[in-house]
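Usage example:
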Amino acid sequence: MFIYREKDYGSMSRRAAQVIAAELIRNPSCVLGLATGSTPVGAYQCLADWCKQGLISFKDVLSVNLDEYKGLSPEHDQSYRYFMQQNLFNHVDIRPENTRVPNGLAADPQEECAQYDAYIRSLGYADLQLLGLGRNGHIGFNEPGGSFIKETHVVDLTQSTIDANARFFASADDVPRQALTMGVGCIMAARRVLVVASGADKADAVYNVVCGPIAPSCPGSILQLHKDVVLVADEAALSKLTAAGVAL
Ligand code: GLP
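Running the assembly step on the lines above writes:
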């Protein structure tokens, strides 16, 4: 795992955007696995700026998002489709038909998951998969549990995730209890994985992902088995690693 230690959220965001931009320049028709959450917002802003300046282009990019809340429509302001439109897609030259987010309103969610998996497989998996980290070490919405689930699946969100995401909703009661998420199979099949983390409340998750035991109790720990992972994090998110004397 290659770790970039950045001073703060701003430099973390720029560095993460640089890694994504480098992929776009290397392979203009790449498959990008994209993530939601507050952490990647700054990186998306950088990419939007650079795209407006003509430095990069998403014209031939295909995107696949990690996850979506079950039961939220694409127009719901807390759906991940809406998030992607607001934070990236509306500001860059990506073709709308080349963007995919799981359909949270699918009549048959299991079938939607199977089709989503088949679609990503048909693309040959992501060239670069962007990931944030949940405070409990989740990636996408792969929550801590008894096993790593390979395929795209419907997941029951843990109370910790519901509480963490309640800040975006009117109340915790409004947070959906389930989501559709890419499994760890597609994530691990990506050629390169870029993990972003910011803030002291991610320090435990970062520590467990980087040097904890590889176990489904911390889903992100499976990334220790991936041969090309880049972690871009700020000092606060790396604080537990540095306190433990891990050389960065
Ligand atoms: C959600 C998303 C994850 C994201 C996580 C952390 O649970 N499903 O993909 O990484 O939130 O979000 P934040 O970056 O806001 O801390």
